[in-house]
UniProtKB/TrEMBL annotation:
Residues 9-123 form the Transposase IS200-like domain. This is Transposase. It comes from the Bacteria. One of its GO terms (biological process) is DNA transposition. Coiled coil: none annotated. It comes from Polynucleobacter hirudinilacicola. GO terms for molecular function: DNA binding; transposase activity. InterPro entries: Transposase_17, Transposase_17_sf. Gene3D superfamilies: Transposase IS200-like (3.30.70.1290).
């Protein structure tokens, strides 16, 4: 069966996920996680990706990135995947693949960006590993609320619109994440990601995919819902 073509538009954010082979553990220690993030930073800088958000789960990873070129995302993930797999096998005295096939990716409508970032940073809570996003040591949430600094993480323009000062943006973001997301929204993001389909509005799809409408077509269960931007609705 032919591989499904990925929808990548330079300058547009992508939600990316990689899983451990057979859902096996990818990170056994904080050192494993630290090294993965360090090599993510290096690969993203080398191949032209801006990293906006992340969540390192025991057996999978969520990333939110904007590629500068059409091949930036693929080269970043391939370089990171190969490097970490070699380290992981050496460190834990094993051999063979550690990844479950190719990474999954979903193009994100700019108006949906902050909702996708929230989805990622709430992943440990949704999975039952933590009771609140503040308890998660290995997501980007603490960075976005001013808890720690990571200069390599790039705030998206939608995040900048949350306020005129860092404090305003941090407070607005903390409130938005604490509010949580409706189940149908989480389901749409998950379904789009697993099928490597864009998560976009009808308006965005008609504008960007007018010549290739099937690339954006995905029939979500239930009644379609309108999603307002946090920037405009607050």
């Amino acid at each position: 069966m032919a591989r499904q073509a990925r929808t990548v538009i330079p300058g547009q954010a992508m939600h990316v996920m990689v899983r451990g082979n057979n859902r096996e553990t990818l990170f056994f220690s904080d050192e494993d996680r630290r090294i993965y993030l360090e090599w993510l930073r290096e690969a993203a800088r080398q191949f032209g990706c801006s990293v906006h958000a992340f969540a390192l789960m025991p057996n999978h990873v969520h990333l939110l990135m904007t590629p500068q070129h059409e091949d930036s995302l693929a080269k970043t993930m391939q370089s990171l995947g190969r490097r970490y797999a070699q380290y992981f096998n050496q460190q834990h005295h094993r051999s063979g693949t550690i990844w479950e096939g190719r990474y999954r990716s979903s193009l994100i409508d700019p108006d949906y960006f902050l909702r996708c970032q929230r989805y990622i940073e709430l992943n440990p809570v949704r999975a039952g590993h933590e009771s609140s996003p503040q308890d998660s040591s290995w997501t980007s949430f603490a960075i976005h609320i001013g808890g720690k600094a990571e200069s390599w993480l790039v705030d998206h323009q939608q995040f900048w619109k949350l306020g005129n000062t860092p404090f305003e943006r941090q407070m607005k973001w903390a409130e938005f994440v604490r509010d949580g997301a409706p189940h149908w929204e989480d389901r749409q993001i998950t379904e789009s990601l697993l099928r490597s389909k864009p998560w976009v509005s009808d308006i965005y799809a008609k504008k960007v995919f007018k010549d290739t409408p099937d690339l954006a077509k995905i029939r979500h269960r239930g009644r379609p819902r309108k999603i307002n931007s946090i920037n405009s609705s607050a």
